[in-house]
Structure formats: C-alpha cells, structure tokens
Design a protein that fits this description.
Layout lengths: L1 E11 L2 E11 L4 E5 L6 H9 L6 E7 L5 E5 L10 H8 L2 H17 L3 H16 L5 H11 L15 H13 L5 E5 L7 H13 L4 E4 L3 H7 L2 E6 L4 E6 L2 H53 L4 H27 L25 E10 L2 E10 L4 E5 L6 H8 L7 E5 L6 E4 L13 H9 L3 H10 L4 H5 L7 H12 L6 E5 L7 H13 L3 E5 L3 H7 L3 E4 L4
C-alpha cells in the first residue's frame, strides 16, 4: 500500500497551503502531520480522501482498489442515530453496503463488462471493510472499552466520555487499507489512548494522523510531514517524534547561525559603505574650503575632488558586494500564542463536603474535596467517571443535590469547558461578541484576538463557522482579560497545536491563582506540576 504525492499544490481559497509536495508513504509508515492551527493539516487529509480538489499534481493511492478511511473525532451526533449507525458510518460499512446494493441493481438490468467490474469492485470493498462481520465484532470491542450499552442505544443522552469511547470503537473496528486520523486522542482517557496506541502500532499499512498528544506521538509515528509557514513549504522527515524535535532544533540552530553570519557580514559592509560616503563628502568639503581660502589652486582642488570621487566608486563596489550576499532561509518566526493569565489579588478556595450532584441518570459523589487558595489541582479518571460534571459543580453551573459546596463568586472563576461553550456557536462574529463579553473597546479586542492568531478574516466570520481550535483560542483570549481568582479548564489542550500547548503550559506555570484542570495529556500534566490529584472512578 502506498500514498504517493507528486508535485501537489493545495489551496484554500486564495491561500496556497502546499506548493509542490512530492513524497511516498508506504507500508509500516505512521506519519504525523504537524503545523500551526489553520495551516491545512485537516485539509490535506480530506484531499487524500478525494473530498477536496487539489490545484495541481497528483495524489495516488495504490493499489487502485485500496480503501481509504478518514476518521475525525466524534463531535455532535444526530440524537436519533444509534451506536450501530455511527459505527457503520465511521468504519465505511454503511457506504460499502450501499455501493454494493447499487452495483447489484445495475447488474440486474445491465450485463455489460463495466457493470460487472463495478459490482466486483463494490463486492471487494464490501469484504475488505468487514461488513459481514461488524455486527459480531462491535459488541466485543465496545465491551472491552467499558461501554455498557448495546448497538441499539441512541446517541441522545450519551456522556462526553461515552461518545469518546464510541469514537474509539469506530477506529478499532475499521479495516481500511489506509487510515487517516484527525485528533484521535481528544477526550480519550488513559485506557483509551493505550488501546488506540496498540491499534496504530500493530498496523502494517499506512497511517497518517494529526495529533497534539506528545506521548502518543512518541509511541506511534515513524515520520513527519511538517507544514512550515516560516519557509512556506511542507517538509518530510524520517524518524520518530523525539528525533524530529531534536533534528528540528539542530536545523534551527544552524539556520540561526547562518542568519547571524549574514547579518554580521552585511552590517560590516554597510559600515564600510557609510565610512566611504563620509570620507567622500568630507574630501569634497575640504577641497572646496581650501580653494575658497586660497590655500590651493583649481588644479589641486580637482585632484582632491578626484580622490573623493574614488571613495564614491568604492561605495558602489561595496553595495554590489552587499547585493551578492546570499541571505539564508528565514529563521523560524511563525505565529505563536501570546498568552498570559493575570494573577489575582487573592486566589479562590473550593470546598465540597460529602457533596453529590446528578445529571440525567448519572450521579456523582458523595465527594469531599478541599482546594486551598493557589493550589494546582488535576481532576483525572476514566471516560464516564463524571469529570465534566464535577467541573460544572465547581463553577456553579450545577447545583449539589446533597452535602455542601463552598465556592468562590462565579464572576471570579475563569472557565474553559470541554465543549468550548463559553464561545457560543451563533451567527454574530467575534468582533461583535468579544468586545461586549470582555468589556474591551473594539480596537483593544481586535488587538488581543490577533495575539491569539484570530485576525481580520477570522473575527469577521460567523462564530458558528469557527473551528474547534479557533474557539479554543478565543476562549483562552477571554480568560486573559481579567485577573480571575481561579481558572477551571476542561481538556484545555484539545484542538491546540503543539507550539500553542507549550505557550499554554508556560502561562499556567506563571499563573498565581487557583488552578483546576481536567486533562488526559500526561506530558502536559507533568509540566504543570499539580499539587493535588482528584481521581474519579467509573461506577
């Protein structure tokens, strides 16, 4: 199995995302696609799938009948869809069955060779995707993932954790020849990430994936396709995640040294040119003053002017030399999240005393937790254990059914929830919503949003068209406006690119209020250095 790119040019509107990519991805390859939010990672996956056209070049998947599956992270699902219907769609089974039925109907009225070939192709796809065995395999996979519901369960009412496990089941059950994964670790707990890692590393056919989870990347990828906006190119690197990071840093150091040498040489030549100009001007002035005072005659003045003119010729020679200097590729200067959380005058405290809370059929608690001012607390636990429900309780979006909850005032708590609902999906745009919500003047609001990579086009689009990454950055921008006494963040690294996650880590380390974070990202958790861990268990 191979995915071959030949001089591929890919654009989004007037923006060229890829300009002339040529590379081949073969068996036993798991390629991580890296780059800042909005650079075109997901667009590339959709182009491989054939859902988006390319401007030039070719993307060939071989053999021709190889199946390609694009598995995005599950988000909003039709409430009337069953788990079976979701899995059939995600594994390509529903489409393969429909194609086979269509080809079969055609064959009933068309005995041509073309109709026969179409039926055979559809049948091969039907078999290769495991249509006939999905009903037998699915219950076992769901049970292994801890899903206590049947294939007939409606998606309406499933928790975020349960949806995450259904999404993972869709990946584990897939039998695509080439697998494209877009942020597959989002919302997965530790057990889910282990299952996903085992599945990806056991495959012998090509996998291309977009992910921000550094531990997952370190365990899975064998190469990298990097969107590098600073150099306007997409580059291929062979090797694992850590090797890529080390090579990237070495390349940056070499490029910085080349850039420094260029600047040193260019500065020296400019100084030589300036000195020659000054000598030329000074020589001309001296000749004119000496002639005016009668100390030299006209012939001598001409000789002195000629000497000054030679300095002018030297300037031209130096400028030509300066033009011939080869400027190195630009040192990496890409946009990065400019994030800082103002520290409050006082930090918030939280106390839960034998507290229970209920949402639908799920009950959390009784739970006793004491969070002192300025503490850094991690909420952890498997999918479906109630982490997001606990967040709602701590920020007073949910009222305790029993026990006591002592919390800071709601307006002193900064929240980024898992659904990013703090940035509503509505028809108005960011430039209308953000100033009103943040109490900032429009000009200041625009400036702040630009620091988070949300520029002119982004702030003028309807908010219901913003990507999850853009909504995450808008939510973080809102948190940076006021000195909240506590920040409560539910999976804050979801949808962020790696440089943005590193900036978020630095900002949270510097923050001096109380910090409460739900995260499955072990690398992120290690860098934050939490003081207390609240571990929830699934009932």
């Amino acid at each position: 199995m191979t995915v071959a790119f030949e001089d591929v040019v890919l654009a989004r509107g007037s923006q060229v995302l890829i300009d002339g990519l040529s590379t081949v991805i073969g068996n036993d390859s798991c390629i991580g696609i890296f780059g800042p939010n909005g650079c075109g990672k997901s667009t590339l996956l959709q182009a491989i799938l054939g859902e988006l056209p390319i401007e030039a070049g070719r993307i060939d998947v071989r053999p021709v009948l190889a199946t390609v599956g694009y598995v995005p992270q599950l988000r909003d699902l039709p409430p009337d869809a069953t788990v079976r219907e979701v899995l059939r769609k995600r594994t390509g089974v529903a489409d393969a069955e429909a194609r086979l039925a269509q080809a079969s109907r055609r064959l009933e009225v068309d005995a041509s060779a073309a109709a026969g070939d179409a039926f055979n192709d559809a049948l091969n796809r039907f078999i290769s995707l495991g249509v006939d065995s999905l009903e037998d395999r699915a219950p076992t996979v769901l049970a292994d993932l801890g899903c206590e519901f049947t294939l007939d369960r409606l998606c309406a009412g499933l928790s975020g954790g349960e949806l995450a496990r259904v999404g993972l089941a869709g990946i584990l059950l897939s039998q695509y020849d080439v697998l494209l994964l877009d942020e597959p670790t989002n919302d997965l707990d530790a057990a889910g990430i282990r299952s996903l890692t085992d599945f990806v590393t056991s495959r012998t056919t090509p996998v291309l994936l977009v992910s921000h989870d550094r531990r997952f990347l370190e365990a899975t990828i064998t190469g990298v396709l990097e969107f590098d906006p600073s150099l306007d190119r997409v580059v291929r690197f062979e090797g694992g995640y850590r090797s890529w990071q080390e090579e990237r840093e070495r390349a940056r150091i070499v490029l910085q040294a080349e850039h420094d040498r260029f600047e040193t040489d260019a500065t020296a030549l400019r100084q030589q040119a300036d000195a020659s100009r000054q000598r030329s001007a000074a020589g001309t002035r001296s000749a004119n003053r000496a002639y005016a005072s009668g100390r030299i005659d006209k012939l001598q003045r001409g000789a002195m002017r000629e000497g000054a003119t030679s300095e002018g010729s030297a300037v031209k020679a130096i400028e030509r030399k300066l033009d011939r200097l080869n400027a190195p590729d630009q040192v990496r200067k890409v946009w990065s999240l400019k994030l800082e959380f103002p520290s409050p005058a006082r930090a918030g405290a939280f106390t839960l005393d034998s507290t229970t809370a209920k949402q639908g059929d799920f009950e959390l608690g009784p739970l006793s937790v004491s969070i002192a001012p300025g503490q850094r607390v991690r909420i952890a636990g498997p999918n479906g254990s109630g982490k997001s429900l606990l967040v709602d309780l701590l920020v007073a979006r949910l009222v305790a059914t029993h026990g006591r909850a002592t919390l800071p005032p709601v307006d002193e708590i900064g929240l980024l929830d898992q659904q990013r609902s703090v940035v509503p999906l509505q028809d108005s745009n960011l430039v209308e919503w953000f100033p009103e919500t943040s109490d900032l003047p429009v000009v200041e609001a625009r400036t702040l949003l630009a620091k988070f990579g949300l520029g002119g086009d982004d702030v003028n689009r309807p908010m219901n068209t913003l990507s999850p990454g853009e909504r995450t950055r808008a939510g973080l921008a809102l948190l940076s406006v006021a000195p909240y006494s506590a920040l409560v963040l539910d999976e804050p690294t979801n949808h962020l690119d790696l440089p943005a996650i590193e900036q978020l880590e630095q900002a949270l380390v510097a923050y001096r209020g109380t910090l409460i974070v739900v995260t499955h990202d072990e690398e992120f958790a290690e860098r934050i250095s939490f003081d207390q861990h609240v571990q929830l268990e699934r009932h």
